[in-house]
Write a structure and sequence with these properties.
- Helices cover about 30% and strands about 25% of the residues.
- It contains 10 helices and 14 strands.
- It has helices at about 5, 50-60, 75-85, 125-130, 135-140, 150-160, 190-195, 205-215, 255-270, 275-290, and strands at about 10-15, 20-25, 40-45, 60-70, 90-95, 100-110, 115-120, 140-145, 165-170, 185-190, 220-225, 230-235, 240-245, 315.
- The chain has a 10-stranded mixed beta sheet, sandwiched between helices. The protein has a 4-stranded mixed beta sheet with strand order 3-2-6-7.
- β11 and β12 (about 230-235) form a beta hairpin.
- α2 packs across α9 and α9 runs antiparallel to α10.
- The mean pLDDT is about 90.
Length: about 325
């Protein structure tokens, strides 16, 4: 439940997706038309929105989840699950005559994954839901959006909010220009950034990619680069900063990007005096910790402090 200590903290709102992950573990990913024997099957809670919300909540954030789940067993269980993690679920709506969103995930022994998603109730998240939560959205310290729920709903919420607007433009798509001027921070990985700029983004050309994305109107752009850390640039300071992270042997990379976004949200609202490279470095560390464990939300750390740490970075 929302403890008194958490209630007095900055409000982090996540508007986005909830889905149940059905995960099979196998020696390698199957080729088209191939049947493989897997080693394990698990059912767990996922969806980019909920993952990001849980990552922030587990780090002690005052989180609110605005989403839609189905009127099936999974929807009711999901709402209860979020509540048990301390997330405020007053705007987690059970939707009649539709299934809760699901993701079918295959994870190979080397940590690679393949995912198929069926959106279900996530497609029903509408401007009406934004209207029902308008006071909460307007006054929130930070709002997170992604692209697994209807775009116009996220756009409406971003227009309304007076705080930090953090967009994780995932899954990748190109037609997001309309929302970018409302974004305080855009966070994307390399393939997502590549789709926006129309060339393949890698470390050697990331500086040009950041410059091009900033022209769309957001204040700050962060491109996450897996084990290579993250690179960012802002409208105010044109420096391109590469924040490095520790190399680890990954067990399961599912949901690592969501761990980064949730941690970023929590740390951005924690201490306004921290330099951005410290906040990005800490979010990278949370994501790195998450890939060393199997599972998605279960792999997110709960006890984490970065106040005495100094993260390495270079100006590109």
């Amino acid at each position: 439940m929302h403890s008194e200590k958490v209630k007095n903290q900055p409000k982090i709102i996540v508007l986005g997706s909830c889905s149940v992950d059905f995960t099979t573990y196998c020696p390698r990913l199957p080729a088209p038309g191939e049947t493989l024997h897997g080693t394990k099957f698990t059912t767990s809670y996922g969806g980019k929105g909920a993952n990001q919300c849980v990552a922030a909540a587990k780090l002690g954030g005052n989180t609110y989840m605005i989403c839609r789940v189905g009127d099936d067993q999974w929807g009711k269980q999901y709402k209860e699950h979020l509540k048990n993690l301390g997330v405020n679920v007053s705007h987690t709506h059970i939707t009649k005559d539709i299934t809760t969103g699901i993701a079918q995930i295959s994870v190979a022994e080397n940590g690679e994954n393949q995912i198929v998603i069926v959106a279900g109730a996530n497609n029903s998240l509408s401007k009406l839901d934004v209207d029902l939560a308008k006071d909460l959205i307007r006054d929130a310290d930070l709002i997170i959006g992604q692209l697994e729920t209807p775009f116009e709903t996220t756009l409406e919420a971003f227009k309304l909010n007076n705080g930090i607007k953090l967009l994780n433009a995932a899954p990748a798509r190109t037609d997001i220009g309309e929302i970018l001027p409302y974004c305080t921070i855009l966070c994307v990985n390399e393939p997502e950034a590549s789709l926006i700029v129309n060339f393949e983004v890698e470390l050697s050309n990331v500086k040009e990619a950041l410059k091009k994305i900033l022209e769309f109107g957001c204040d700050t752009v962060i491109i996450t680069m897996g084990e290579k850390g993250a690179v960012y640039s802002t409208k105010k300071y044109s420096d391109c900063v590469h924040v490095l992270c520790d190399k680890v042997k990954p067990k399961d990379t599912t949901g690592a990007g969501d761990a980064f976004v949730g941690a970023l949200a929590k740390f951005l609202t924690d201490d306004k005096r921290q330099p951005l490279h410290q906040i990005v470095g800490a979010a990278c560390e949370v994501a790195t910790l998450s890939v060393t464990k199997e599972g998605t939300q279960t792999s997110y750390p709960a006890d984490f402090s970065y106040t005495n740490k100094r993260y390495d970075y270079v100006i590109l």
